Amino acid sequence: MACGEGYGSNVLAGTAAAVVGVDANPEAHEHARLRYVRDNLRFERDLVETFAEPSDAVVFLQTIEHVQDAGAILEHFKSMLEPDGVAYVSTPNLLTLAPAGAEKSDNPWHVHEYRAEEFRQLCEMHFPRVELLGLFHARKLRAHEIAIKLGWDSVHKRLGLTKPFYDRFTPAIAASDFRLAPDNLDRALDFLAVCHAA
Q: In the sheet where 81-92 sits, what is the strand order?
């Protein structure tokens, strides 16, 4: 849901039996439809509020913070799920996204940003079982995070290494450079709610 240009739908189609990427944006839909062609993948131009095909899983990443009625969206997703289905819903952590003490980041497109317990409560109001995980840096990204705290930003700028370093570093980032964990959620970059229909 809200698949954008289709990259994530294509990744999921690498292992799933069938994937439907849903997005209302006509340019994103057309890009996805033309760029990612697989027998088990299709793209539908529709709103997440109205697309209603029965599903084993619903994936809604980094989008719930953009919607006016998050509860209605979660209820809609639950109605789409098979009895043993799961909705995967992620959102940024307000505490690591916004300046300290701020009610919200300066992102004008975010309607509501969540703290861990608030996000957990929202999901638990609509699903009988919710696991909340935090996304954290690991491996290369954790080392980079520590380097920044030690002054790396001033060093690479002074030595003129910024572009060459990040031209190599950024493409080298892999899924293994992140980790999901259920603890220390206030320090997480993002939250992932695994919402079970039953």
A: 55-60, 81-92, 190-196, 129-137, 178-181
